[in-house]
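Convert to structure. Protein one:
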Amino acid sequence: MSGLRSVESTVVARAAAIILVVANHAMFGVSLHGGLNALLILSGLALAQFGFGRTTGDALRAMARIGLRIAVPSFLVALVWQIAVGQISVPELGFYSNWLYKSRVALFPIWFAQAFSQLLIVLALLFFVTGMGERIARRPLAWVSGLYGLGAAVALTSYLTWDTTYYADKLPHLIAWNFAFGWLIWAVRKRVPGPAGGGILTAVLAVSIATLYLTVDAASGPTRAMLLPLIVLPVIWSDRIALPTLLARATIVASQATLFIFLFHYYAFWAVWRVGRLVGLEAESQNPWLRVVVGMVGPILLWALWTAMLRVYRRGYSLWSPAARPG
């Protein structure tokens, strides 16, 4: 197809999810929640693809990689900001403030990194004690379905017995089913490929959303119920999506820069507000559309600079390494 480029559906979904996160924080005056939930599902799918199907050790190493990839940068960004503003929060840096209060010192939603890290620690212990990696390798659909059902049941039980409004539902056991649904996508594709598998996953997602977002008092449940499927269903039903070439390139870049956008979009908002205040355009600097653009473009430029620096470093290291020297 002329003028079109095929892009992996997970790449498109990741870009759409992070854009939704930025738009939600840009303050359009309406709830736009669901982006972080979609990112959790995509993270679960990636973990299953690269860590499941072999041994428990492989699964644990995949969990460590994905966990450290978000926890370490989140800790460093929060630490630098807290030092800069002269307000050190031990619970926040200790990654347990999401269990204490909703407020935060760091501008970015560090609760997500905290809850995700806590979830991975519990899952790692479960896998280590039970040898779950080998169990999944032998019977992927059965064990993954069981784990998904457990995660959904824990979330439902919590909603029915414990009012977590004070925490804005930013707790690991309430997002575990999102992560496990990514595993379920992997397992169903492995055992029930094609339209039948897509139908099963769509039905499970619909029932889960109705149960865990609409029938209980979940934070921004109706919004998540509406927006989450728009991002996840294309992943369920298609491996690749054809986009106009220019849009495809922008989508790939946004997907690759997702972590930087997550970490720095609030700081981009803050920088624009500071500049606007200095030049007498404070109200204009809070325009949500401007915040979305700056919240995407600023972190992407930072990501591009970082990746360029890494390439230069690696090229220089390879040139000066002993293996590269003659004789």
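Protein two, convert as well:
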Amino acid sequence: MDKALPPHLQKEGGVAKEFADAIRVMGRVRSVLCDLLESVDHGDTDGTKALAAEHARLMDAIDRAFRTEQKFDDWLAKQTGAGADGALDLADIRHQIGCRLARLRTCGGAG
């Protein structure tokens, strides 16, 4: 996810790890679901309860992956100053620069 980012924007662990964990869980649950479906297809009725539980785990993992990806996208937009469409919000950038300059003036006058 953040491998294509410049080194100064890459995060260790955090969102990238959460996303990788969610993908790993989805893979494992998908495998278990396939095994359970196979057993149900062969007449194992006890597998239907386990199938429902694994389906719920898969849906949870997918939800976690989407939420984590959204958190990453929000974080990246803050770091790069780009909006959802990739465009720079120049008014916001000017405002941020103005606020930082004001803080520097305050700090410089106090010394």
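Residues 10-110 form one domain. The mean pLDDT is 75.
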